[in-house]
Amino acid sequence: MTRFEHKFASPLPVQAGGVVIVGAGLAGLFTALKLAPLPVTVVSVARFGEGASSLWAQAGVAAALAEGDSPEAHAADTILAGAGLVDENIALGMAREARERVEDLLRYGVPFDKDLEGHLSLGHEAAHRRRRILHVKGDTAGRAIMAALTEAVRRTKSITVLEGYAARDLVLRDGRVAGLELAQVDGSPFARNVTLAARAVVLATGGAGQIFAITTNPREARGDGIAIAARAGAVIADAEFVQFHPTAINIGRDPAPLATEALRGEGAVLINGRGERFMRAIHADAELGPRDVVARCVYREVTSGRGAFLDCRALGPTLPAHFPTVFAACREAGIDPTREPIPVAPAAHYHMGGILTDAQGRSTIDGLWACGEVASTGAHGANRLASNSLLEAVVFGARVAHDIAGYASHAATAPLMADAPAIAAVSRRNEEAEQTLRRTMQSHAGVIRDAGSLTEALGVIGTLEQEAKGDPRLVNMLTTAKLIAAAALARKESRGAHFRSDYPQASEALAHRSFLTLSQAEAIVREAVQSHRPAPRRRAALHA
Ligand SMILES: Cc1cc2nc3c(=O)[nH]c(=O)nc-3n(C[C@H](O)[C@H](O)[C@H](O)COP(=O)(O)OP(=O)(O)OC[C@H]3O[C@@H](n4cnc5c(N)ncnc54)[C@H](O)[C@@H]3O)c2cc1C
User: Fold this and answer.
1) Which pLDDT belongs to residue 467?
2) Is 475 in contact with 465 (CB distance < 8 Å)?
3) What are the tens digits of pLDDT across the range 406-434?
4) DSSP line for 517-537
5) Bridge partners (DSSP) listed for residue 159
6) Does ligand 1 lie within 6 Å of residue 323's CB atom?
7) How far apart are CA 49 and CA 151, in angstroms?
8) pTM of the model
9) Which of 348, 335, 339, 337 has the alpha carbon at shortest distance from 263?
10) Ligand 1 mean position to 27 CA, how many Å?
11) Is 258 in the pocket of ligand 1 (CB under 6 A)?
């Protein structure tokens, strides 16, 4: 299926109601600020200023601002990293808009690092052939960007923030978005459910890392947006492509703290428990090879029992000052990274897949937009280039705002449509089911997959779905997990972040994006389960 066969949302307003943005990470807040003075409601499941991957970004924002660099060169690196699946127009458009969006961020008060002459300092990162990463004080870019935007939102009267509410489902009328169902998440069994009338809903709910047992993503990154959109009939693109970061700090913390790639850029090396630098035998760039290659090698060392460690001793006493976040996480676990190697493991880090959107951020459902990590714009293809996701969040946040503002200039703040009955508190049993799902996705649909492991994962998801009824959060995780595993099963090749041990090579014939609705994913599941069912005679033998 090609991109051009999809019918994207029509912007014509039909229903009454306001503009509702789900998610208060960089994508959601930037969209809200860009929509001002149009009234908008921003819904956040976490407390405002918490529970977003954006807060944890360590490196920064990629932008071709250096002398001798160009948006074309930035797009070329993005396309190369994306392993044949990047939508080249989207990547070029994103790189071209980077300068304007960085100026917006500076205007909102983001204190990007500058040199002594007051020019923006640009850092280097893996797979960028130029220096183009805007940092803030070492590894604190995300926190600084979010602090500035949170403050800007507080000052903006047209933005209403509704914190502690989780989006559960879209309300559709005549196939168009008419509202959004929310559930209060105060932990009490009497949580209140409400429905907001909305003529435009923007899903900016971030990633889905929590579907895997080891992840760098916050607890709120459960793939809710994908599940909500898919249930309403939206097309989901490239769901199989999950980027695993090779060096999450493996100290049993959930989420796992990240040891940023920049450490390897500064001379840290990967060793196994025997002290061998295992990357040297695998890739000419050793530790600075492509993220997916390094992740697979770390995975093999960990699963073989040899263990994998990031040896940062060469960085010496400058490490605490240059990487304060990493240093603090290590010290908390009793590790002194200036003296001893840090244990690492690959962790689900970024989802290239998501709700299929066009260049304006419109989904395939009228009245529904998506931006940030939950969307699949085509900018990342099979593998995201480092520091392109914060850029994508602001470029597409601005485009979504522009598209909505074009017709909704008189939209009001979202009025309450109705109160719905309270939902039951999350039972202990479902928490167990959640952990089973996460372990299964990590081992069967993670860094290395094959038809057997993926079919088994889909079987576990099917069983857990029976137990999940009444726990909408778990239902969402299972729905998104099903889309990821079904898309991974359907892609019979290895490309970018998707590695199939039964199809270890890329196939020229499959060099295109994948598009799935929930019912198409369910058809893949049915077929897989059917074809893996033991033959009748063998089944009889099993029961004998
Ligand atoms: C540790 C780490 C380091 C990273 N470093 C970089 C980097 O240096 N550069 C870079 O470009 N990218 C980096 N990334 C990736 C980048 O941070 C994310 O892709 C980006 O921040 C996503 O922004 P977002 O606004 O889409 O999602 P988020 O920032 O995750 O925000 C999602 C929001 O949605 C809310 N939400 C979720 N579900 C619901 C629901 N059902 N109802 C209501 N609200 C909901 C969440 O609480 C949150 O407010 C990093 C990611 C991690 C985890």
Assistant:
1) 86
2) yes
3) 865 544 555 555 555 555 444 445 889 99
4) -HHHHHHHHHHHHHHHSPPHH
5) 40
6) no
7) 10
8) 0.93
9) 337
10) 8
11) yes
Q: For ligand 1, is residue 167 a contact (CB within 6 Å)?
A: yes
Task: List the structure tokens of 396.
Answer: 């597409």
Q: For residue 251, how many other CB atoms are within 10 A of its CB? A: 17
pLDDT digits (tens, 9 = 90+) for 54-66: 999 988 999 999 9
Query: How is residue 204 written in tokens?
Result: 């900016």
Are 160 and 40 in contact, with CB atoms under 8 Å apart? yes
Mutate to test the pocket of ligand 1, among 325, 390, 479 (most ligand atoms within 8 A of CB): 390
Would the CB of 301 count as within 6 Å of ligand 1?
no
Buried b vs exposed e over 288-297: b needs ≥16 C-beta within 10 Å?
bbbbbebbbb
Compute the half-sphere exposure of residue 522: CA atoms within 13 Å on the CB side of its CA. Answer: 10
Maximum Cα interatomic distance, the chain, rounded to a whole number of Å: 81
Distance CA 84, CA 293 (A): 16
| DSSP bridge pairs for 355 | 236, 375
Q: Side chain identity at 238, as an amino acid letter? A: D
Cα–ligand 1 centroid distance for 475 (angstroms): 21
Predicted confidence (pLDDT) per residue in 211-265, tens digit: 999 999 999 999 999 999 999 999 999 999 999 999 999 999 999 999 988 899 8
Active-site residue, 291 included: yes
Residue position matching structure tokens 């239902």: 475
What DSSP string describes 470-486? T-HHHHHHHHHHHHHHH
